[in-house]
Amino acid sequence: MAGLRPHEESITRVVWAAHILSCLTNTRYHEEQHEVDDAERDGDTDEPSDCETDYETVETAVLSGTRDSIRRKFLDCIAQLLSPCKGWDGVTATAIREGEDRVEVDIARNDGFLLDEDCFGSETVGYCKMLEEYLAGSAGGTNETASCPTEFELKVIDYTSRRIDQWIEELRKTRNFDQNRLDWNSQQWFGQEAAIEALTTMTDLILQFDADKGAIKSRPLIVQQAYRCLQFTQVRQLFLDTFGTQPGSKLWSRLNFISRPLVDCRLLRSIAAREPQFRNCKISLVSKPKTTLDARYVVGIFEAWQRLGLDSTPEPVARKLGPSSQRFEEACAESFSLHAEMQLVLHYDEECAHQPTLEYFGCSKKTCLLCETFLHALPSPIATRGRHGVCYPAWGVPCSTSATVEVAIERLEKSLVARIRALLNDMMYSGQKSLAANVVQSGMVSDFSHLTLEEWRQKEQDVWLFKDKQMTQRKDLLITRQYDEEDRISWTEIDVYPYLGTDKPFKGIMRIEHNPVRCRNLGSGFAGFAPYKEGYCVSLIHRDAYLEDGSTTNRSILASVRASCASTTPHEYRGPMIALQGIHHEDYADITLADFRHVMDYLVSYGNTHIRESVPDLHHRAPKTVRGVKICCYGEVKLHGSDRFVSVDVTQANQISLGSGSISPISVCLGMPIRLWKDPDAEFRHDPPGWEGHDLTADSNPNVAYLMVETDSSKDDWGWAPMYWNSEIGNVWAVRTDGQDLAADDVAMMCHFARRKLQRMFEDVMESGSSLVSRRRVSDFITWDNMITYWNETGGHEQFGSQD
Fold first, then answer.
1. What is the DSSP string of 74-95?
2. SS3 state at 205
3. What CA–CA distance (Å, rounded) separates 409 from 395?
């Protein structure tokens, strides 16, 4: 393999190992895979999901789940709606990118939506458009009944007709399905007449169903009736009591699959009704690439065995692999289509779209062994709804030279080779356990062993009881539910003793609803009063006076913050802190690793007023970052040789930390309002040593002072700058109030115009009596065109130079 590049070698070895593993396992299942029923033995089939109870309970469970679990269900439902048939071709995967008021869902399918080009058929595009409109109309929730499906729901039934027809046929083939239905009129079902009536109607429709005749009319009726049966909790028990446990469970499972189009649609609408941003959903289809091994790497199965480092081929293995030798070479020479999950990985790796905001791929079925292993081998692992353990040898390896994919492929290769070695070990040594003769143990040793085992089990049980007791006590101490019987209200009380200190300090709580670094909204209504809450927050509980009560620096937070930002930390954090996830109804939940990232980002940005200079010609900046201008004070220019106007990058976190600032009246008249903040850095608040020879103090900034002159002719302080902007100014940050980038040249023109032209006009009017008419004349003169004219007439560009 010396002629191969390392990454290309890993790709080749993955293909070899996958084919060898498939040959060794015959059935394509691995030893650790649990036994499943016939309906699931083909990895391409549907899987039972949410089949243990009625639909209403399932919906309640989904909507009351965590934020991420709701989004996972959303992706799984969309994947199932875009999967028109059972089998490999119909397997669909989805990923989500979520913004503050919209979501984007990328969808890939194994068959590439039946197109080899980069464009998609009008039918598929139109179907996705209808889904977007369906979600957009979900504000009122799911008011439809089983007998009244919407236009899109009927379209879904037609789109997934092949899958529905297969499950109807599976249900009809179930043993004794058409024989026991008359028994439902028995007296033993007294009080369950509505459920029996729904089930009887559905049974008649299914037995009369003919996929070749009248299916267009009868299929929607069957799906609607199956959906109606799921509304009754008694239907499942009817199946179990009538047909027996195993056949009854199969019937119930198939009934769920038949009703799945409506179930998925109604769940999507319920989720969109709860999460407003899901109503503004954009669906994008991902094209299907293929991979092919170079002819040089198409070798025999035994040569591949040697190149994988598996040493010599034992005789039992040779007998097993020998018949597959020719097929092995032919299979390795074929072009392999990427599975839907791998299409999404390559889609993001090639930067065709931004990375998903949720590390989860929705799927219309469980993930195969190779996809699941690859996704978990990524530096940032991606979860799925589960795996079925099948190893498909015709598996396209994502061809990419990025470090992320290379690492995952190398880990996948090692995992496959390790599985082959484990199978080899089982084949060679599985029978050796029975070679030794059985020896009768002495009574003394037997009694001693029994006593020892009993003592060990008792000690182990005591340890677990003690551990459970400690955990229970700790949780009871930290979070307790309180109830006022008189007012009949309940609330959650957090007992932080002794976690914040044995002196029982007053506690303060920072509620984090927004991640300013990654521009993600976690929720709303927690940090301040609101009529209702959405999402969740991360509650950071701390000693209320940790900056004044002698608390020592929290070194853990200090190290984490330093690792996430510059060497200087924007704020000092002292004393112990507790992080919890705040959810609805004033309750709390366990913090996740993602929440810990949000906490670190918040602590990094809290009080952070450090603003960096812009990099010239850099068009891609962090989200919510705008280009502003630093108006340098006299000391900055003289001591550091800085330009008077410097472009800087101002983040949203910077603006929050700096506060509301002040808007320049001159800029408002010019039609480009800008907001100003004094730089909190106190470097020039006092004249440095040896400054005596200068006419101005180091913190003087006349450009800003003149820019802040009042222009409202009705005010007494017309023509004057506020005291705050007339002394101890220092460096000043400026941004546009409309959120657009601010050019340094524009600020230079404003300051030049205000300082050299307008100030003289203000002084002339005030010296002549300052009449209201003359004041308005000056205010009317402050226009963008007049500023440009004055700039060109006085050669302002020569005085200031290019300030980009």
1. HHHHHHHHT--SSSGGG-EEEE
2. helix
3. 13
Helical packing angle, 772-781 and 759-767, nearest 10°? 170
Residue with tokens 């959120």: 739
pLDDT attached to residue 643: 85
> What is the rounded distance in angstroms from the CA atom of residue 753 to the CA atom of residue 653?
32
**458 phi and psi, to 5 degrees?**
-65, -40
Q: Do 345 and 405 meet the contact criterion of CB atoms below 8 Å apart? A: yes
Q: Which of 208, 242, 212, 213 is nearest to 225 (CA)?
A: 208
Q: How many CB atoms neighbour CB 63 within 10 A?
A: 16
Compute the chain's Rg from CA coordinates: 35
Planar angle of CA 429, 430, 432, nearest 5 degrees? 65
Helix or strand (DSSP H, E) at 362: strand 362-363
Q: What is the pLDDT of residue 320?
A: 78
Dihedral sign of CA atoms 247, 252, 253, 255 in order: positive
So where are the chain's domains?
7-28+289-427, 55-89+117-284, 478-611, 617-799
167 touches 254 (CB < 8 A):
yes
Please tell me the total number of residues recorded for the chain in this structure: 804
Tokens (6 digits) for 149: 């499906």
DSSP one-letter string for 316-352: HHHHHHGGGHHHHHHHHHS-EEPPHHHHHHHHHHTTS
Q: Are 595 and 535 in contact (CB under 8 A)?
A: no
Is 804 buried (19+), middle (13-18) or exposed (0-12) by CB count in 10 A?
Answer: exposed
3-state SS record for 673-725: CEEEEECCCCCCCCCCCCCCCCCCCCCCCHHHHHHCCCCCCCCCCCCCCCHHH
Q: Do 260 and 83 meet the contact criterion of CB atoms below 8 Å apart?
A: no
Q: What is the number of alpha carbons within 13 Å of residue 413 lying toward its C-beta?
A: 22
**Residue 243: which of 196, 174, 149 has the closest Cα?**
174
CB contact at 8 A, 665 and 673: no
Question: Where does residue 639 rank: exposed (0-12), middle (13-18), buried (19+ CB within 10 A)?
Answer: middle
- Residue 62, CA distances (Å) to 65, 70, 332 in order: 5, 6, 43
State the Cα–Cα distance between residues 446 and 441, nearest whole angstrom. 7
Walking along the chain (804 residues) 10 residues at a time, the average pLDDT comes out as 56 85 63 37 44 58 77 93 87 91 92 64 87 87 62 92 89 67 54 79 85 82 89 79 79 88 92 89 86 77 83 76 79 80 88 88 89 87 82 76 83 85 72 40 40 53 50 49 63 74 85 78 76 82 85 83 62 86 75 84 72 51 76 85 86 80 93 91 72 80 92 88 89 91 91 92 86 88 92 75 41
Measured CA to CA, the distance from residue 480 to residue 100 in angstroms comes to 33
Burial of 167 (0-12, 13-18, 19+ CB in 10 A): buried
- For residue 686, the tally of other CB atoms under 10 A from its CB is 13
What pLDDT, on the 0 to 100 scale, is given for residue 41? Answer: 37
Contact status, residue 399 vs residue 290, Cβ threshold 8 Å: no
What does 99-120 look like in DSSP terms, one character per residue?
Answer: -SS-EEEEEEETTGGG-SSSS-
For residue 567, the SS3 value is: coil
Report the SS3 class of residue 55: helix
User: pTM of the entire structure?
Assistant: 0.52
| Phi, psi dihedral angles at 386 (to 5 degrees) | 135, 175
> What are the residues facing 107 on neighbouring strands?
94, 285
What Å distances lie between residue 736 and 30, 288, 628, 664, CA to CA? 62, 44, 7, 10
Q: Beta partners for 535?
A: 523
How far apart CA 169 and CA 206 sit, in angstroms, is: 9
Peptide bond into 247 cis (omega under 30): no
